[in-house]
Amino acid sequence: MVVSTKASALEQKLATLRQLMSRATPAQRSDYQYRLDVSWIYHDAAIEGIVYEPSELRAALHESVASDNSLIPVYDEIRNAKASIELARELAKAPKLEITMDTIRQMYLALSPSEAESGGPKFRKDMPLHRQYFHEISQPDKIAQGMKQVVQWIGAQEVRPGVHLVRYASKAHYKFLQVFPYNKHSGRIARLIMNTILLHGGYPPVILHATDRQGYYDALRQGSERVSIVVRSALTNDLNSTIRFFSRLLGLPDTLP
Question: Nearest to residue 195, comparing CAs of 186, 204, 187?
Fold first, then answer.
């Protein structure tokens, strides 16, 4: 397989990060994961147009009791987002990763656990006029078939050889968003699928920052190749910032591969 220069650069950065993390103490790695989770939750919500205050994130993740009852739904949302991240990490530990309809249901219910009582997620029945995403999505009567095709594509072995993992994960996320099966959480689940694939392959998660929001939406209208570029750029930036974080933490020169 011919590996592109861009793919090789990512592999070099990943190898550098792994080496730095191996030198960090357990407490330092734990602190990094907490910071990562806060960033992941904050920016993933911001992509959906929801902005959490730093104080809300800290309180929710430290299991504080809301002094104001109006904050309870916010705390619950943040904790559900954290639960979905933990689910992605757990799924990624499997020797063979399988993204099935049951996997997608688990992701949805991690984000909305109360819906388990009513039978779990239901495919949307309409074409929402007011929504965050403005790319073309499946008609309601095409969703079931579209989801079947997405799951089959993700699991098909023939799509993997010769395709870089980042591109594969990005396209899986793109295909899911083309169907957009649910009125809520479709975007978050698409990114969870992408990051579960990346984590399983030894990569860190891609965090699409709030400042990338419009570029991300535009890319979804332009096609999977453009989305792949946006995702790869975000991953590169994430790797660079994490390498710098651990380099400073360990008192090492701030140099990037």
Answer: 204
Instruction: Enter the pTM of the model.
Output: 0.92
pLDDT tens-digit map of 21-59: 999 999 999 999 999 999 999 999 999 999 999 999 999
- In this structure, the chain runs to a length of 257
What letter does residue 90 receive in the DSSP assignment? H
How far apart are the C-alpha atoms of 92 and 115, rounded to whole Å?
A: 24
Contact (Cβ atoms closer than 8 angstroms) between residue 57 and residue 75: no
The tokens for 179 are 């169907």
d(CA 177, CA 11): 27
Here the tokens at position 118 are 């009513």
Q: Which residue has the tokens 């020797």?
A: 95
What is the residue range of 160's domain?
A: 5-113+136-249
Query: For residues 78-91, b (16+ Cβ closer than 10 Å) or e, as one string?
Result: bebbbebbebbeeb
The domain total for the chain is 1
